Amino acid sequence: MTGFELLFRDGYARIGRLPTPHGNIETPALLPVLHPDQERQAIPASELAAGFGVKAAISSAYILWRQPELRARAEAEGLHRLLGFDGPLMTDSGAFQQHAYGHVEVGPEEILEFQNRIGSDIATVLDIFVESTAAPEEAQRGVEETIARSKVARGARPGLLAVPVQGGAYPELRYRSAHAASEVGDVLAIGGVVPLLEQYRFAELAVQLLAARPALAPERPVHLFGAGHPVLFAFAALFGVDLFDSSSYHKFARRDAVMFPEGTVPLDSIRESICDCRACREVPLPELRGRPVAEREHQLARHNLAACVSEVARVRQAIRDGALWELAEQRAAGHPALFAGLRVAVRGARWFATVEPESRDQFRWCSPLSGLRPGVIRFLARLGVWKQGRGPYRYHPRVRLTPGALRTVPSHASTGEPIAWETATPIGPVPLELLELYPVGNWMGPEQYEPAPPRSAPDPAEVDPAETEAQRLERWTQRHVAGVLTWCYGATLAEQLMEPGLGVVRSARSGRLRRLERDGVPWFTVRNDGLPQPTWAAAREIHRLLPTPRGRVGVLADAAPFVESGRTLFSSFGRPLDPSLLPGSVALLVDPEDRLLAVGRLLLSPSEIGRFQRGVAATILSHARAPPPTLEEEAPELFPLPPDPPAP
Ligand code: GUN
Ligand code: ZN
């Protein structure tokens, strides 16, 4: 069983941990290809680990098997000794060679048995490589054969099994193949895309990745065969690709092609020392031109690998920061083909809907696609629902979303019910009540750095002279809080939570909502993303008023006592109840009788809870019962106090 665990995430992209017999693979990870023949390996395996921090690699079982001498040694010594690498090793099956040469002399059973015998940590099914040019019937045959072989392979493979996903250019076939792979595979490996990668057909790649995505089991790592260029990693990670592999670092080196996260540059054109990776510190790129072929190839392979490894690290950091869209857009600026691929991704916003986090720390504008990110599309869709039954909103051009726009109470916003105001934001008019929410609340875009038109005083016609400033402020505040609570819980519950006695605390500096109280008791704290987080008292009230299953995640009876006393909810003990919750949502954690145990913040989406066998589903924010007393608290007589120190 795959023990894959999700640790951090940004949408589909995740920092995860895949245990193997030779240690964990921390994803996203690049598995560089290790050539089975040491003579043809550009960088010695020992240097991969020690010099580049490579923790896992991939090799070709087929190439090993094909050469009698290597085959015998692999069977005698095992794969790890043969390759001189003691971390996790995946092996590929020969499907790519079958495709390239038209045939392989080995059958699917035999090559799988061979992978078992030599101690591969992740063995791969011998699939049928389906070209993107394949006719529908041919593609269908390839997919069916791959599925049949995968089922047989599962029965013959005790360890981790990578099951390829084929389907050529046909989204329905990709979906079917991904679905079938998810039933038997530990690693789901998207295949048949090398021609798309080589020809920069990233828009077509995006179509296929999106087609497969909903059918890929979320609790399994996803591999992308042949993806080994740093331009691609952020892009592929957006679709939830966890593992990359490639011999590109060496192949590119052989033709004097220098890899960068922004694209490929011919060595000949490099006249400046533009890189200071470990290879380029030894021999700067401009000097490499004059060196002998073998040295050039070796040094460039090392540079290329360093570029790949450091870009994967960037991707990992971006996932932790919730900034992967930013990174993907920055990379897409490097090549229009990648931009075209990203355009497919934003058009598929609804594919991202279930894993798109509730909010992020920051929204940083990076490209013309920024305003179309799934987080924006979702906000606008939800806004449409929120506005229903709220009377017309009148556009008010005077409030612009500039730094400090929220520092002052928009006095003109409080005028004459039922008129309400909305104002220009970079994603269109947004009601003033919602200006603190992601993505508008923490939007960082060029418009903020352009001179703003002068703000005029409120139109006298809008101001009711009988109303004092304090009354206006109070009315605006009520409206503001009701708007935000409705955004979170719907109108009915918001109204109930707004009962008399609600006190509102704003930040003195920024004017933003900070805290809601009821009769002086803390009720909600408002986070930096503008979303109110209920205290335990408020959560109990929400639980009472909000009909099941809304807002809830189930906790199995076995785990209830732990969660109730504040222990993390692990995925295997959780069950989804409300499918509309999102990663990052605050959820009511309830036992099978709907008793409220705790309030948690979700790491997993409901569709993932219970499916991951390992790892956290939700961290706990507040809980029903204090943790059980420690022995020291229960029996203080067993822990005598040390004697008082002597008086000075
Ligand atoms: N390497 C590159 N593409 C593929 C593929 O589609 N299947 C397998 N098994 N290996 C590959
Ligand atoms: Zn370099």
In brief, what are we looking at here?
By secondary structure, the protein is α/β, with parallel strands linked by helices.
What's the end-to-end separation, in Å?
A: 65 Å
Number of domains: 3
Q: Would you identify the CATH architecture of the largest domain?
A: Alpha-Beta Barrel
CATH fold assignment of the largest domain: TIM Barrel
Kindly describe this structure.
The chain has 648 residues and is α/β, with parallel strands linked by helices. The protein folds into 3 domains: 348 residues, Alpha-Beta Barrel (TIM Barrel); 114 residues, no CATH class; 102 residues, Archaeosine Trna-guanine Transglycosylase, Chain: A, domain 4 (Roll). It is built from 24 helices and 28 strands. The chain is globular, with a radius of gyration of 29 Å. The chain starts with a strand and ends in a 14-residue tail after the last helix. About 3% of the residues have low confidence. The structure holds guanine and zinc ion (ZN). The site of guanine (GUN) has 13 residues, from helix 5.
Helices, strands, pairings?
Elements: E1 5-10, E2 13-20, E3 23-27, E4 29-32, H1 45-52, E5 57-60, H2 61-66, H3 68-77, H4 79-83, E6 89-92, H5 95-101, H6 108-118, E7 122-124, H7 136-156, E8 160-165, H8 171-184, E9 187-190, H9 194-198, H10 202-212, E10 222-224, H11 233-238, E11 243-246, H12 248-254, E12 257-260, E13 263-266, H13 278-282, H14 285-288, H15 293-321, H16 324-332, H17 336-347, H18 349-352, E14 363-364, H19 374-387, E15 393-395, E16 420-423, E17 430-431, E18 443-444, H20 469-489, H21 491-497, E19 502-506, E20 513-518, E21 521-526, E22 532-534, H22 536-545, E23 552-555, H23 560-564, E24 569-570, E25 574-576, E26 586-590, E27 596-602, E28 616-623, H24 631-634
Parallel strand pairs: 4-11, 5-6, 7-8, 8-9, 9-10, 10-11, 14-18, 15-16, 23-26
Antiparallel strand pairs: 1-2, 2-3, 12-13, 16-17, 19-20, 20-21, 21-22, 23-25, 24-28, 26-27, 27-28
Helix pairs in contact: 6-7, 7-8, 8-10, 10-17, 12-15, 15-16, 16-17, 20-21
Bound molecules: guanine and zinc ion (ZN).
The site of zinc ion (ZN) has 6 residues, from α13 and α15.
